[in-house]
Amino acid sequence: MLVQYLPGDSLLHRLDPRTKVVAVLCAAVSVLAAADWQGLGLAALPVLASVALTRLPARVFLHGLRGFWVLLAITFLVQLFTIPGEMLLELGPLGISREGLEAATLIFLRLSLLILAASLLTLTTSPISLTAGLESILSPFRRLGLPAHELAMMMTIALRFIPTLLQEAQVLLKAQRSRGAHFSAGNPARWAKGLLPLFVPLFAGALRRAEDLATAMEARCYRGGANRTRIRSLRFSSLDYAAVGVVLGVLAGTMVLRFL
Description:
Elements: H1 17-33, H2 37-53, H3 58-66, H4 69-82, E1 87-91, E2 94-97, H5 98-124, H6 127-138, H7 148-178, H8 188-194, H9 196-219, H10 238-259
Antiparallel strand pairs: 1-2
Helix pairs in contact: 1-2, 1-5, 1-6, 1-10, 2-5, 2-10, 4-5, 6-7, 7-9
């Protein structure tokens, strides 16, 4: 799963978490700012190179993209059939134009690259390191009253519990099917009603886990980021500066291609 940390000793695993957060943000802006094939190709280079540098199996990324196939398919089809232009194929009231095919392919690749860029952060960064990096990035805003530590902790806990909730949902789905439940039969209303036996225990389990976590933190006298120290301090290396320089260069190149 894309939101689960996979330990390793690759180049990306050794980067500072702050570097990876900044790199993912720059990569996302580059992908969104790309207006044509040249810009999207330039924005895709660091993302695809980073995927190769993780040394993780390709099936990890393919399995993660498969979880978004509904979103990708709907977006592709909407762009394909709604953009007018030079017609390539007519299917009754619907038609596929050259401009629609190009726009649909661009948006499909754009969303896929955004998913891959986001997954690189969680796959190669442990929750503790990610919390430390986010807190360090948000710490300058403390003067404005922003609870940097609490926000970083909430985001990390949310990412940490997504794989747990997905695994629990699979267990509940198999348990309900073993009792004769059918989740794909009938009209949409009946299908939604059939999901109630799945959502009710799932939400109850999520609330129970949240309550247990809060009780454990209170029992350990957790008081947020006040007077807290870390066993490992974050430090930038030459590798981090090089990575930031590469993504900033790609971002600048994408902007130049867009506006020039």
